[in-house]
Design brief:
The protein is built from 6 helices and 5 strands, in the order E-H-E-H-E-H-E-H-E-H-H. It has 152 residues and is of the alpha/beta class. It has a 5-stranded parallel sheet with strand order 2-1-3-5-4, with helices on both faces. Helix 2 packs across helix 3 and helix 4 packs parallel to helix 5. It is globular and about 45 Å long.
Length: 152
């Protein structure tokens, strides 16, 4: 699986831990920046990650900003991007399983590298249950979200 990773200056200190965790999960990293701690705007890197998913160059994405909140808000403005901030493993996995989440947002000023390992692993090892037998309730809900996206 290919994973697009992007961050702003607030997330930059955690970026290496995220990339190492993605590689440890056996996935390929597409690093869209930023590449230094110099101040930048998170929407620019959110857009780069989202476009990689929209263009089918990546299956999922991980965004890191100071709190994770701004990146999540910006990512969810993009068609086909389903992002959430997750700072616990249950949410990181369940967001994929039940809600088809395809972008994990993390707060670089909120969590540390050890938690990153667990969160990235939970996110990448989860799969959407709506496509499986018995997953109709999940696909029904996700389809309602997609309808909202189309009819805004």
């Amino acid at each position: 699986m290919k994973i697009a990773v992007g961050c702003d200056h607030g997330g930059f200190p955690l970026k290496d831990a995220v990339i190492e965790s993605v590689k440890a999960a056996g996935c390929e990293v597409i690093d869209v920046g930023t590449f230094s701690a110099e101040a930048v705007d998170f929407p620019d890197f959110t857009k780069k990650v989202g476009e990689k998913i929209q263009n089918e160059e990546a299956e999922r994405g991980i965004l890191i900003c100071g709190s994770g909140i701004g990146a999540a808000i910006a990512a969810n403005k993009m068609k086909g991007i389903y992002a959430s901030i997750c700072h616990d493993t249950y949410s990181a996995a369940q967001g994929v399983q039940h809600d088809a989440m395809n972008v994990l947002c993390l707060g670089g000023r909120v969590i540390g590298p050890e938690l990153v390992k667990a969160l990235v692993s939970a996110f990448l090892n989860a799969h959407y249950l709506g496509d499986e037998k018995g997953g109709e309730r999940f696909s029904q809900r996700v389809n309602k979200i997609k309808d909202m996206e189309q009819n805004k």
